[in-house]
Amino acid sequence: MTAVPTVGAPAARAPGAPGRPGGGPPPRSLGPRPLRRIRWPYGSGRRPRARTLVAYAFLAPAFAMFLIVMLVPIGKAIQVSFYDWLPFPGAENTWVGLNNYQRALGDPQFRLSVVNAVVYMLVTVPGQIVLGLGVALLLQNRLPGRMVFRVLFYLPVVTSWVVVSLLFRYLFATDGGFINWVLVEGIGLVDEPVGWLDSRWTAIAALCVLGIWKGIGWTAIILLAGLTGVPRELHEAAAVDGAGYLRRVWHVTLPALRRTLVFVSVMLVIGSFNVFISVLLMTQGGPAGQTEVPLTYTYRQTFNFLEFGYGSAVAVLMTVVVLILSIGQMMLANRAERGE
Predict the structure, then answer these.
(1) Domains along the chain?
(2) What is the helix (H) or strand (E) element at residue 232, kind and residue range?
(3) Please, which residues have CB within 8 angstroms of residue 298's CB and are 6 or more apart in sequence?
(4) Which terminal CB of the chain, N or C, has fewer other CB atoms within 10 Å?
(5) How far apart are CA 236 and CA 239, in angstroms?
(6) How do strand 83-84 and strand 94-95 relate by DSSP bridges?
């Protein structure tokens, strides 16, 4: 005979069915619980406009400092550039209009300083990017003592420009310099010491070596941060397809670092036109002003000859030049990215 189930009695649990051994409801799920809704700390009745005002209140101190330290001096420099400005109390400043700008554009010494800055840029920017990328690729690997190497490569970046400029002036000195000692006494490559800082191009070469050496660490750290965002799967897929290391760097790493490289190149271009301390301490703009750069030229015209109006005009012109170069770099990079 077959047993007839009683009305209201629990159904028999099939073998393997969920539930407790003695019957009863199944155990509670151990999965993730739904997230609770986080309430806005200012209450639900506040308008979005009030939240925006709170954000502006936090930004106000930093913006006020930026206004005082940056924007106000820039505006004052633009104003001074239109005057024959005298820094003496009670002196009358004469309005000269665009005469200071015309004088700067027609000054051969100013044009020479711009050419020197462009040469410095064309040498140091690619040099720092190429060597910095090599260092970043090297530090990306799991080498023993990797953190020590990172510190050593970044140490020149945090070292004072005054200290390293004086050090390189000693290294490239004609009499008693370490470079000449190596060339003459060490390997016997030359018979007489080379006057590195006594002629235009050798002095600019020494300045470029200093600029590249000091900037490699910064470039490497920025590019190393960008390398962390390159998917490892892309390299693995390229390796499966038979691509070697250099081909993977060219076809995988560099395209993925495009935005980082644009940022680095823009910052390095700006920095190359702001070179000042190394030129002032290593060559003093000599010989005969042949290694002058825009900032040293502006400094001498302003503080040696008290040409504050003319010096301000030169500074404004260089600001416009650097701004145009930076915007042009970003536009070319965006156009190349859209072209792909």
Answers:
(1) 48-94 (no CATH), 98-339 (1.10.3720.10)
(2) helix 232-240
(3) 311, 314, 315, 318
(4) N
(5) 5
(6) antiparallel
Residue 306 — left, alpha, or beta (φ > 0 → left; ψ -120 to 50 → alpha)? left
- Give, in order, the Cα–Cα distances in Å from 109 to each of 94, 231, 240, 252, 307: 25, 50, 58, 46, 15
HSE, side-chain direction, 13 A CA sphere, residue 149: 14
Query: What pLDDT was estimated at residue 339?
Result: 60
Element (H, E) at 94: strand 94-95
Interior angle at CA 284, CA 280 and CA 288, nearest 5: 150
Q: What is the largest CA-CA distance in the chain?
A: 124
Distance CA 107, CA 298 (A): 12
Inter-residue contact 309 to 81 (CB < 8 Å):
yes
Give the Cβ contact number of residue 13 at 10 Å.
Answer: 13
The pLDDT tens digits of the residues spanning 92-136 come to 888 998 999 999 999 999 999 999 999 999 999 999 999 999 999
Name residue 84's beta-bridge partners: 94
Residue-wise pLDDT tens digits, 170-206? 999 988 889 999 988 888 888 888 899 999 999 999 9
Instruction: Classify the C-alpha dihedral 299-301-120-192 as positive or negative.
Output: negative
Question: Per residue, what are the HEC states of 186-212?
Answer: HCCCCCCCCCHHHCHHHHHHHHHHHHH
Residue 20 falls in which region: left (phi positive, over 0), alpha (psi -120 to 50) or beta: beta
Cα–Cα distance for residue pair 130/304, rounded to 1 Å: 39
How much is the pTM?
0.78
Of 155, 170, 165, the C-alpha closest to 279 is: 165
User: How many other C-beta atoms can be found within 10 angstroms of the C-beta atom of residue 306?
Assistant: 14
Q: Length of the chain, please?
A: 340
Q: How far, in Å, are 105, 149, 289, 296, 297 from residue 318 at the CA level?
A: 11, 37, 18, 12, 11
Collapsed DSSP state (helix, strand, coil) of residue 49: helix
Structure tokens at 300: 């001498």
Mapped onto helix, strand or coil, the DSSP state of residue 214 is helix
